[in-house]
Amino acid sequence: MPKARTPEERSSDPAAVEVLKYAEEFGLGTAFSRADSMQPCPIGSDGLCCKNCFMGPCRVVKDGQTGVCGATVETIVARNLARAIAAGSSAHSDHGRDMAFTLKAAATGEAADYKIRDPYKLFTLADNLGVAVEGRSVEEIASDVADIAISQFGQQTGEVICVGRAPAKRQKIWRELGVVPRGIDREVVEVLHRTHIGDDQDPDHILDAAVRCALADGWGGSMLASDISDVLFGTPSPLVSQANLGVLKDDEVNIIIHGHEPTLSEMILAATGDPELIEYAESQGAKGINLAGICCTSNETLVRQGVASAGNFLHQELAILTGSVEAMVVDVQCIMQALVPLSENFHTEVITTSKKVKISGATHMEFDEHHALDIARQIVRRAIDNFPKRGETHIPDVSSDLVAGFSHEYINYALGGVMRGSFRPLNDAIAAGRIRGVVANVGCNNPRVTQDATHQYLVEEFLKNDVLVVETGCGAIASAKQGLLLGESALEYAGPGLREVCEAVGMPPVLHMGSCVDNTRILTVLTQMASEGGLGDDISDIPAVGLAPEWMSEKALAIATYAAASGAYVIMGTTNPLKGSEEVQRLINEGWREKFGGRLEFVIDPEEILQRTLAHIDERRAALKLPEYDASKWGESGDKRMLQLIELPFEERQAALYGEPA
Ligand code: NFS
User: Fold this and answer.
1) Rounded CA separation 47/581 (Å)
2) 528 with 418, same domain?
3) How high is the mean pLDDT of the chain?
4) 118 Ramachandran zone, left/alpha/beta (phi>0; psi -120 to 50)
5) Looking at the structure, do residues 183 and 92 belong to the same domain, yes or no?
6) Residue 631 has pLDDT above 90, yes or no
C-alpha cells in the first residue's frame, strides 16, 4: 500500500491544507486520499492497455508482444491517444453546440430570459460566418448566426468556417496535409471509426485523424462556444474579484455553481439578486445569498460578471467539507461522483441540472433554457431551504484579490486604445526583448501531484524571466488564489522588462483569459500577433509555449493537440500517456514539428519544463533575428527611474540626468 501524503504534500494551497486536516480528523476521504490509496495502473498509464474489442483487454508489456488481433504497441498507444482526443473534443464542442442552440432560442424569443448582450461581437461573428448585417435586426442576425453555427457540427464536406481565421500560411499547411476539419461531429465519428477493431493501424495516419478532430474543436466547437457566450453574456473586460474557499460566507446561503456552461449559471446569478429570494433567505436566518464558482463555470462567471471563485478542480470536495455549502449546482464535465457521498455527511445538496448528467443520489432539477430564470429561482429557493439545516462550519480565512477578464478584444484595446487597437506594442516589446516571450499556462489540477505547486513554481519563474503569462481554466484559478493576477505581482515577481510593460499598459503580468473553451482566445491572440508583423507570419514563428503542468482530463489532450497543430510548442506535465511507445512520442514531437512547426511533449519534472520552455522561446527569438534576451537592459526607465531620481538632492539629480557641470 503506498504511503498517504500529508496535507502539505497534497496541496500547496493553505486553504486546502486546512480543510484536508479537518477531513482527516473526521475520516472523510477526498480525491487526494483516494489517489494515495490506489496507484495508477502501470499498463494503462503508459498507454499499453487496448480495450477496443472484447478479445482482450490486451496488455502489451513484453518486447515484440501484440494484441490478440496483432495490434502493435505503436498502434495501441496512438489509438488510445486518438480516442482521448475525440472524447475531449466532443466535450468542448458539445458545449459549443448547446451555446448555439441557446442563441437560436434567444433570437427567436423562445428563451425570453436570454438577451444579446454584446451586439458588436455578434456583428463580428456574423461577418466571419457570412451572415448579412446591413439593415437587419439584432435578432434576425443572431438567428442566422445560430443556424450557421449549428450547421458546423453536422457539416459533411467542405471546411469548418472558423478555420479561415487562422494565419494564411497555417491554413495552407493544413490543406496540404489534408487535416482541415470538414464538420465537427464528422471528425469525432471518424476517429471513433478508425480506432475500432480492424481499422486504421498506421500510427501516423491515426494521429492525422486525431489532429483533424482536435482542430475541429479548437477552430470550431470551442471557438464558437467562446464567441457565442460573449454574444449572449458579454465579452470579458477586466474586473476585480476574489478566489479561494474564504469567499464562502458564514452568515449567508452559499451556492456553488460547478461545471462548465454559462447558460444556467448566469440565470442563477440573476436569481440570487431577486429581492423576493433575498427576503426568503433572511427569513431563514441568513444575511444574504452568496454565489461562488468552481472549475470552468467559475471562470465563465468570473471573467464576465466577477462572481468569486471558490477554487479549481481539487477544491470541489473541499468546498463541501467546509460545511457551509447549501447547494452545489452542477451541469457538465469535471464533476466528481464523490461529491454525492461526501455531501451526505453535511447538509449540502448536490443538484444536477443537465439533460446529459445525472448522478445517483443527487437531486435532479433539469434545466430548460425556455424557462431558465424560473428554474434558476427554484434552485436558489431549494438552497435557501437547506440553510437552517447547516451544522458547524470550517471556512478557511484564505482568499486573494484578483483581476480577471482579459479577452483578446480587451488586450487589443489596452495596448492601442479604441481607435488604434493593435497588438503592435506587444510585438514591439517582444521584439525589443522587454518581454522575452509568452507562455500560455492552462489546464487542470491532478491529485497525483501537489495541488497548484507546479503552476505556481512555473508562473513565478516565468515572471522573473520577463515572460508574459496568459492563463485559462484551473491553471488560472491557481494563479488567482496565489495573488498572481494582480498588478502588484508584477512589482513582486516580474523581471524589469516585463514590469515596465505592465506598468505602462496597466495590466497584471498574468492575464486570466477565461475557461478552457476560451483557449481559443489564445489562438486568436497568437494569430493577431502573427498578422501584426515583426514576429514572423505564422503561429509557429512566435516565441510562445503552451503548458498544462497539472493536467488530467481528455479535454486537455484535445487542446494540446490543436495548439501543437496550430504551430505551438506544447508541454504537458504530471504523467505521460504515451510512455509505452517511443515511436508515438517521436511522431508527436519531431513528426509534428516537421508537419506543423509545433509539437507536443510530456515532461514530468517542473524544472525541465521551465528550461525547455525558455530554450524554445530563445530559439524562436534567434530564428526571428531578434536581440538576445538580456534582463540587465531594462528597468532603468519609467516609474522606477523617476522614483530613484526623486530621492536624490537637486544637484545629484541634475548630474544623474545631464552629467556633471563642465
Ligand atoms: Ni479544463 Fe474546465 Fe479544470 Fe481541467 Fe476541468 S474545469 S475545461 S478540464 S479540471 S482545467
Assistant:
1) 8
2) yes
3) 95
4) beta
5) yes
6) no
From 335, 357, 389, the end of a domain falls on 389
Taking the CA of residue 475 as reference, the ligand 1 atom at the shortest distance is 10
Query: Per-residue pLDDT tens for 272-286?
Result: 999 999 999 999 999
- Do the strands 467-471 and 437-441 form a parallel or antiparallel pair, or are they unpaired? parallel
On whether both 98 and 188 belong to a single domain, the answer is yes
Q: Which phi and psi (to 5°) does residue 337 adopt? A: -65, -25
Q: Which pLDDT score, from 0 to 100, does residue 655 have?
A: 79
Q: What is the pLDDT of residue 352?
A: 98
Q: How many structural domains is the chain composed of?
A: 3
Q: Ligand 1 center to residue 640 CA distance, Å? A: 39
pLDDT in tens, 22-35: 999 999 999 999 99
- Residue 601 bridge partners (DSSP): 571
Q: Identify the domain boundary among 233, 254, 281.
A: 233
CA distances to 353, 367, 515, 656 from 103, in Å: 19, 16, 19, 61
Asked whether the whole model's pTM tops 0.70, one would answer: yes
Q: Are residues 525 and 645 in the same domain?
A: yes
Cell digits of residue 28: 472523510
Mutational pocket test of ligand 1: of 313, 477, 559, 572, the residue with most ligand atoms within 8 Å of the beta carbon = 313
Dist CA 493 CA 484 (whole Å): 9
- Write out the residue range of the structural domain in which residue 80 sits: 73-233
Residue 534 inside a domain? The answer is: yes
**Ligand 1 probe mutation, 257, 477, 516, 521, most atoms within 8 A of CB:** 516
